Predict the 3D structure of the following.
Amino acid sequence: MSATTDHPTHLRIHQFAGLKPGPRLLVTGAVHGNEVAGVGAIQRVMDLLDRGELTLLKGTLTMIPIVNPLAHRLQRREGERNLNRNLRVNPIPQDFEDRVANQLCPWLAASDVLLDLHSFNNPGPAFAMLGPRDNDGDLEPFRHEKAEGQLALAVGTQRIVEGWLSTYALGLKRRAEKSGDGSRRQALQQDPHYGVGTTEYMRAQGGYCITLECGQHADPAAPEVAFRAILRTLVLLGLVAPGCVEPADPARPVELLQLYEVIDRDHADDRFERQWASFDPVVQGQRIGTRADGSPVLAPADGRIVFPNDKAQPGHEWFYLAKPSDRQLG
């Protein structure tokens, strides 16, 4: 599929408008085209509403099951670029994802809460990612720390991760110090806005949100994780009555981690020491990988490896590192 005319020409957006005022929830799936856990889960919720087996009591529920239809059609992460980076309104769109962003961003801005459903490459359990703590800083000022923490707890995962944008900004600063190849992709990667995706854009518009990583892409349990998360979010916000889903166990152990470092792959011959999975533990000084020139890549401290990607292209994120967080939720 190379011709522009072969590209999808619309987004399919569904909205259920309650007759009483209430929170405005947006649920999104397939922001990355091969992350499909949310697609069927959203359809299941719509079917329940259409059959009258689930009743919207108030507020507005908007659902976009396939946010990136080109990437979804191609069964890969990206269409022409990564939609979940450098997300903004583009007055002069340069690619398919720019055109999607021009439709998506107003829906984000018109919502109060976002549940963004994703999945990941390597096997592992589902986890939630939340935003910053309340702050007045320049990077990501925020005022909904408590509500976002409650949302992260409500979806039911046993692991919650914070620190995305601040860690990503660290990687961007390093990239900006390197010479580029002049391509648009390289320019986007070095743009300070590049770490902004759906949730970061949502927070910048005054809302709050979480990214729910529902499991490995092909995990048969991932769609059920997404389905339960949508229902639990609806109950939490009072949009539907309790009883449609078993609530998350409030006594379950929850591991809260903070991302603090991102390491890029510099060369195609950079290689991992072994097959890593997200949240595998590492100890200080442990060899994580080896650069093309033979130099070791060592863990700077005890913690966990997150999002290891042995297929990362040079100049892209190779893996992240996380440590225990002292944040209090609930």
User: Anything to note?
Assistant: Residues 1-5 have pLDDT under 50 and may be disordered. DSSP finds eight helices and 14 strands in the chain. The domain at 4-253 is CATH 3.40.630.10 (Aminopeptidase). The helical segments are 37-51, 69-74, 96-109, 145-154, 164-176, 184-189, 198-204, 222-236.
